[in-house]
Amino acid sequence: MKDQKKIRLGLIGVGNWALFAHVRVLRLLPEYEIVAIYSQRKEAAMAAAAEYGIPHVAESLDALVTDPLVDQVLVLTTSQQHEEGIRAAITAGKDVYCEWPLTPTAAKSAELATLADAAGVKTQIGLQRQFAPAFRYVHDLIAQGFVGKVRSARMHVSVNLFGEIRTNAARWSLPVENFMSVVSIFGGHFFPVLFSVVGKPSSFSALTVNQFPEVTIKETGEKIQTTSPDELLMHGTLADGGLFSIHIEGGKLSGSGVQIDITGDAGDLKITNTSAFGGVDEDFIVTGAKGIASRWSISRSLRSTSGSHGPAYRQA
């Protein structure tokens, strides 16, 4: 492992999410090395390179994807810009990771997937939350029979973002065609979490609503009409006969986070945290109970902690 060659990464995009999540985490992983970065805002790319010790700032998108020192390309721009970066990486024959959503439309995403297959490059979409230690632990507990047969699963995801007041940086979330609403983003990230542990749905129905048809841009006071949904209710049946419900909502003033309850015929599990967006100090606490009501006991609790060496988990 010590002599294994590092995977050399070229990053496209230096927005808040790229720097908050990807750069911060990748610098902790010894298997990877960020060797180049590109942004349409060259000054921002240069600032990021200086702050995080990235040795090369590419002059153009083509220069980054064709750089012989770059093994894999990470597309970390906004959803409207993803297609350009993905196409460039595939054309250059480079493996590519793209943040969610792949593109704003299913048809364009399918086209890119076909293009990648034809080129023989490896691809990945940034929906890896289901592989977080807490959710892998829950997956294993259910697979080992902790709850028995799953009777029902309920997930509530809420954030204080995407409400009546939005920052200018979140202006892209207003038109529904950008596919950047709280429903599409948090739905995309948390649907796989739930269904990876309780199984896929066999049927469902859903309702989306726009409860903030007009929002105010915080910096300017500008009033803008929005067509994006800010709340979703979904329910249905699982493949093995269990029931599930999902509630996703933006603009929650207090008490936001994630609450997942899984009920089985032998036990129950609860997964909670207070930061659905994933802050540095985010906690996911997993608790479980087995037995009749008068004799239930907490079986285990995992709490995520963040420190200088990245996230870890401890038994509480």
Question: What report would you give on this structure?
Answer:
The protein has 316 residues and is α/β, with parallel strands linked by helices. Helices cover 26% and strands 33% of the residues. The protein has seven helices and 18 strands. It has helices at residues 16-26, 42-52, 61-65, 79-91, 106-119, 133-143, 182-198; strands at 7-12, 32-38, 56-57, 72-75, 95-99, 123-126, 150-158, 165-166, 201-209, 214-217, 223-225, 231-238, 243-249, 257-264, 267-273, 285-290, 302-307, 310-315. The strands form four sheets. Strands 9-12-13-7-14-15-16 form a seven-stranded mixed sheet, with helices on one face. Strands 3-2-1-4-5-6 form a six-stranded parallel sheet. The longest helix has 17 residues, at 182-198.
Low-confidence stretches: 294-316
Q: In which order are the strands of the major sheet placed?
A: 9-12-13-7-14-15-16
Biggest beta-sheet profile: 7 strands, mixed
Discrete helix count: 7
What fraction, in percent, of the residue positions are helical? 25-40%
| Beta strands, count | 18
How large is the radius of gyration? 21 Å
Overall geometry: globular
Task: Please state roughly what percent of the residues sit in beta strands, choosing from under 5%, 5-15%, 15-25%, 25-35%, 35-45% or over 45%.
Answer: 25-35%
Query: Which structural class best describes the helix and strand composition?
Result: alpha/beta
Through-space gap between termini: 32 Å
**What would the average pLDDT be, to the nearest integer?**
89
Query: What is the N-to-C order of secondary-structure elements (H for helix, E for strand)?
Result: EHEHEHEHEHEHEEHEEEEEEEEEE
